[in-house]
Amino acid sequence: MGEIRGDQRRVLQEQGIGLVPSRICAAALAAAVLALIAGCGGDSSGEQSAEKPFAPRVAIEAVGGSARTDKPQLDIELAARRGDANIRSAAITLPTAILADQAALGNLCSESELEDKRCKGRQRMGEARALSPAYDVPLTGPVYAVSGSGGLPKPAYVLSGGGAEVLLRGRIEVVGQRIQATVDDVPDIPLDAFELSLDGGKSGYLVLSRDICRMPAKATVSLTSQEGESLTRSVPIEAECGG
Predict the structure, then answer these.
(1) Running DSSP on this structure, what letter comes out for residue 103?
(2) What is the pLDDT of residues 81-114, one digit of tens each?
(3) What tens digit of pLDDT does each residue of 169-210 get?
(4) CA-CA-CA-CA torsion for 40, 196, 181, 117, nearest 10 degrees?
(5) In this structure, what are the phi and psi dihedrals at residue 226, rounded to the nearest 5 degrees?
(6) pLDDT in tens, 206-233
(7) Is 123 helix (H, G, I), strand (E, B) or coil?
(8) Distance from the Cα of residue 79 to its chain's centroid
(9) Which residue among 38, 104, 179, 243 is least crowded, i.e. fewest CB within 10 A of its CB?
(10) What is the mean pLDDT of residues 125-131?
(11) Nearest residue to 131 via CA among 38, 223, 52, 55
(12) Domain map of the chain by residue range?
């Protein structure tokens, strides 16, 4: 296992994140749902100024199906420009064209299994990848749906790389018949990009309620910076549609 470099340790300690041998546990994220999702941009010192811009880019693509009842893989990518403010919170509200497949919500991980063995052996929701100047290598790993805390299952992102482990937590809600994946209190650590692929196919948790080529769909993405600036965008769901 690798070790946390001295400059990495300093950055993380300045942000109030404790270190344990070969493991960094950070309460946060998302995504999406999903879900979701991570901090971005900024210099490696984590210092921010009120003048920093805040314009991360988000792209969403359905891969492997676009017709009603299809269960495509859903790829979500959040990217930032170097120098942008870091993200504090993120939420993605999926369109009504994308629903939860109740029949697939099985083999969930429990809170105790997450704590004891990081949900090993349980069905995953997908896979996530985070790129940050604070780490020598990308942090990658599975995303699990965790039950046992009331309400809908909550995503847990078990990321690791270069000897470090990051555990990120999110929440899922239904808002106006739309699935919303949220991550609050993201650590103020610069991340260049966060990529999330939600599994499709028979075991996938999401299903299409309509043909998204005939009737294009859009998600609503809401981001808040560490300085408190808010940004909301309508992001089209790209799909593999015939000419």
Answers:
(1) G
(2) 888 998 888 999 999 999 999 888 878 999 999 9
(3) 899 999 999 999 998 878 788 889 999 999 999 999 999 999
(4) -100
(5) -65, -20
(6) 999 999 999 999 999 999 998 999 999 9
(7) coil
(8) 12
(9) 243
(10) 94
(11) 38
(12) 6-237
